[in-house]
Write a structure and sequence with these properties.
Length: 293
């Protein structure tokens, strides 16, 4: 049995592989060891995951017994999995699945394995935040620090939302769209300032504007704004690797929904785009099915 997890802060996608087939798909709350306590994570694993596994594998006791017998391999990929936290996540998985072998990695390696397999490439994540890494077909060997949406995160949904608001309220986008935006989103300049500077999780608020931007991508001003955001991503992150010979591959909703603008930006900056997928889970299934140890 192989259990694969792709975890973000909001949701974790799980897939169970038995032999050469994916036999079950499950979803639980997000698991992020940087932000959550051990008790919270163990509760998610025991209360949400085990009950769903039981629908495929039989009673929970049978699931635990088979893991204790060493019949399970767990591959956990997640945001917030820093190197110093790998051992903690492995220990927590061991509490729930005694005897199972557990491999724990960050979400950047998940992206690389999902879009590059065992081929070298530059793997990128463009969602609420942004990240990238030079992948040699086995490991991430270089990483340009994204630095978050205040100092960096070029190409991300948060930065796109920030740039959109800047252009909207400084008059670089037509006033008709400003009126439509405030009416549809129930916002004003004062409320925007409050949400960004006084309320928590400003990055998520800024990224929440991406669907509105996507609905108005036919506007030349909006399309150019999106393309410029991606150009900035290549200039500040990808160029550092010095490997314009390698394909640049992407995971994440921002890359997926703005593929046209992303490919346009890549051509302008001298890079070739490879795969673009919304979520890494299907690519991870293929990776672990095709490359079983």
């Amino acid at each position: 049995m192989k259990l694969i997890a792709d975890s973000g802060s909001t949701k974790t996608d799980w897939v169970l592989i038995d032999g050469g087939n994916a036999v079950g798909r499950y979803a639980t709350a997000g698991i992020n060891p940087f932000h959550q306590t051990e008790d919270v994570i163990l509760d998610i694993l025991r209360r949400e995951l085990l009950s769903q596994l039981a629908t495929t594998c039989g009673p929970v006791d049978e699931v635990l017994n088979s893991s204790q017998a060493g019949q399970w391999e767990i591959f956990f990929y997640g945001s917030g999995v820093r190197p110093e936290l790998v051992g903690e996540v492995q220990r927590m998985l061991g509490h729930v699945f005694p005897g199972a072998a557990a491999e724990v990695n960050g979400d950047l390696l998940a992206a690389a394995r999902a879009v590059c397999g065992r081929r070298a490439g530059i793997a990128c994540i463009l969602g609420t935040g942004a990240n990238s890494g030079l992948y040699d077909g086995s490991a991430i060997v270089a990483n340009t620090p994204p630095l978050g949406y205040i100092l960096g995160d070029e190409g991300s949904g948060a930065v796109l939302g920030r740039n959109f608001l800047n252009a909207l309220y400084k008059g670089f986008i037509n006033k008709t769209l400003l009126t439509e935006f405030e009416h549809e989103m129930h916002l004003s300049m004062a409320l925007v300032i409050d949400r960004v500077y006084r309320q928590p999780q400003a990055n998520k608020f800024l990224a929440s504007l991406v669907p509105f931007i996507a609905r108005h991508i036919d506007s030349e001003e909006v399309s150019n704004l999106v393309t410029d955001n991606f150009c900035s991503f290549f200039r500040h992150n990808v160029v550092q690797y010095g490997r314009s010979d390698l394909p640049v591959c992407f995971v994440g909703s921002v890359a997926y929904h703005f593929e046209k603008q992303l490919r346009q930006a890549a051509r302008g900056e001298g890079f070739d785009v490879g795969s673009i997928i919304k979520s890494p889970i299907d690519g991870l299934i293929d990776y672990h099915l095709q490359h079983q140890e």
